[in-house]
Amino acid sequence: MSLPLAETLKIILASPRRPPPRGTAPGGRGRLGELFRNLQADPPGPAAHAIEDDIWAIWIAHDDPHLENRMQQAIGAIAQRRFSDAETQLNDLVAAAPDWAEAWNKRATLYYLTHRDAESVADIRHTLELEPRHFGAICGFGQICLRHGEMAAAAEAFAAALAINPHLDSVRAVLAQLAPGRPRRLN
């Protein structure tokens, strides 16, 4: 495994032992802990998906409406494959709000989509330093590992994501193919 992947995997595997973040998701700091606890307790189905949607909404939200609007513009640019516009927006967001984990995560996603994996891994690491429970960033790291043939690292990442959000059925299916001997339920 290359050094950047190994270092990021160490951060991912240490995530459960890290305290909850203090400076992330300004509008929902207190609510995130409750949502993550509920995500672990609720059975699969609509309730779990609603909780996951609420977590994503908090991650994407920002107290500054201008920055939140810029995030929506960046998300739209990515969806329309206007990657240069998205990168400009996300670079500005990371500079303006360096403690906003989702700005780093969205830029990591952009880098992944444009096959700039080293930059994506760096932004995933930064995302996880700010929000160690970011199952989306962890899954993104797993995808990069798959692209580089690092199947064991991908399996570890996907297992870590499932430990945080046990309702990621597509991730569970990939993990079952990568590591058939792993338990189906990880929490």
Automatic annotation (TrEMBL):
Listed Gene3D superfamilies: Tetratricopeptide repeat domain
Organism superkingdom: Bacteria
Full protein name: Tetratricopeptide repeat protein
